[in-house]
Amino acid sequence: MIFALFVMVVALSAGVAVAMLARIDSGYLVIGWNGWVFEVGNLLVVLLLLSIGFLLAYWLLRGVSISVRGFSSWSRWRRRRRQNRGQRLFFRGLARFTEANWEDANKLLLDALKRQGEASDYSTPALLALAVAADQLGEKQNRDLYLARAAREDKQSELAVGLLRAEFLIGDGRAVEATSLLQRLQQLKPRHPQVLTLLLSLYKQLRRCNDLLQLLPLLRRQKLVTPEQAEELERCCYLQLLEDAPTLQEAWRSLPRKYEKDPELFVVYLKALVKDGQPERAAALLRRRLSPQADSRLLNLLVDLADKDPLEDLQRVEKLLTRNPDSAPLALTAARLAQKCDQPAQADHYYLRAIDQRADAEVLREYGELLLSQQKTTEAAQLLSRAAAQTAAAERQQALSLRAAESLFKPQFERTLSLTQTAV
């Protein structure tokens, strides 16, 4: 507006100046072109026509400019209105998604994507949510298409898309493919908690002990497992490696020193020796390991290996009992060895000592069967009845524990939901 007033003032001033000059000399203009001659005897008229033409051209161009800007503003308003509508549909779809209303979520999120144009802030999370909804609806092909589109449109979403695809592969029972994908993601984000957690689960499922042992230090540093859990995982890995080892001696020597005295690992090693045709070596190693505080698993294996000379093993266990007379495992082992030596009186004595220390179902049943073989039916029936009652009580307790665990179960989709909400 100010510029227009300025132009008008300049034009009026120029007109006044020209009029004053015209009073002195009106001038004369001749224009010739291609045989045509244009003559004007008054220069003032020419200047007036030029001024009018300039003003007309200015107002015409200004009108066109205003019209173009107005159309552009209208287009921007329409685009903003469409995007706002798409954003509202997206949040409504996300609400249905959290409610596990997959069909409504799928419809609303698709409408949101149609309105958002080529790209928007919520395109990637909408596609990820659509992939989850399609998976829950059994539309595997659409699920994979949504993931592929999300990866194509947003290169920064590689991790989120990869995690979600790994979840789907696990759900489809394709654990090996999921493991390969997660290993690639770990190269991309070596310390990402969700990647490490899923790898831990898959390594355990696939019994890939060497991979799990390599992953454990990182799990410890990221505090994804407690020290106790890490210790148990490491122990289970070495236990599995020992069971699957092609060469026993090499596998046993490769164990960390702290596990050489682990009773369970040692029993696995001894059983592997027996299976490999070396029972004498297994028995010799076992006898050297015996002590007054010997683990019950070692003592049970001693009974199994005592076929050649059970009396010598019985005397060895009796000596240990003198140093630890309150040991129920030693008393039970002595009773079993006495049975092998055909010494029923000794077996009765040691079974009674074991029952005094630990009257569990196993001891009661074994002693009851021994009495039954000796035709002591009344005492045997009492012991077998107590053993059956204890076994039934243990089974009831186990059933209650299983029901409690089932009541705490949460749907698998919560993990994928957390991934999608993180992407949002």
Largest sheet: 2 strands, antiparallel
Which shape, going by the Cα principal axes? Answer: rod-shaped
Number of helical stretches of at least 4 residues = 20
What is the quaternary state of this protein?
single chain
Q: Give the DSSP E fraction (strand runs of 2 or more residues).
A: under 5%
Give the helices and strands as they follow along the chain: HEEHHHHHHHHHHHHHHHHHHH
Output the radius of gyration: 45 Å
Mean pLDDT: 79
Q: Helical percent range?
A: over 70%
Overview of this protein structure:
The protein is mostly helical. The chain is 78% helix and 2% strand. The protein has 20 helices and two strands. It has helices at residues 2-24, 43-98, 102-115, 123-136, 140-153, 158-171, 175-188, 193-206, 209-221, 227-244, 248-253, 263-275, 279-289, 296-305, 310-323, 328-340, 344-357, 361-373, 377-407, 413-423, and strands spanning 29-33, 36-40. The chain has a two-stranded antiparallel sheet with strand order 1-2. Helix 6 runs antiparallel to helix 20 (413-423) and helix 13 (279-289) runs antiparallel to helix 14. The chain is rod-shaped. The chain starts with a helix and ends with a helix. The model is unreliable at 408-413 and 415-424 (pLDDT under 50).
SSE diagram, text form:
Elements lengths: L1 H23 L4 E5 L2 E5 L2 H56 L3 H14 L7 H14 L3 H14 L4 H14 L3 H14 L4 H14 L2 H13 L5 H18 L3 H6 L9 H13 L3 H11 L6 H10 L4 H14 L4 H13 L3 H14 L3 H13 L3 H31 L5 H11 L1
Antiparallel strand pairs: 1-2
Helix pairs in contact: 1-2, 2-3, 3-4, 4-5, 4-20, 5-6, 6-7, 6-20, 7-8, 8-9, 9-10, 10-12, 12-13, 13-14, 14-16, 15-16, 16-17, 17-18, 18-19
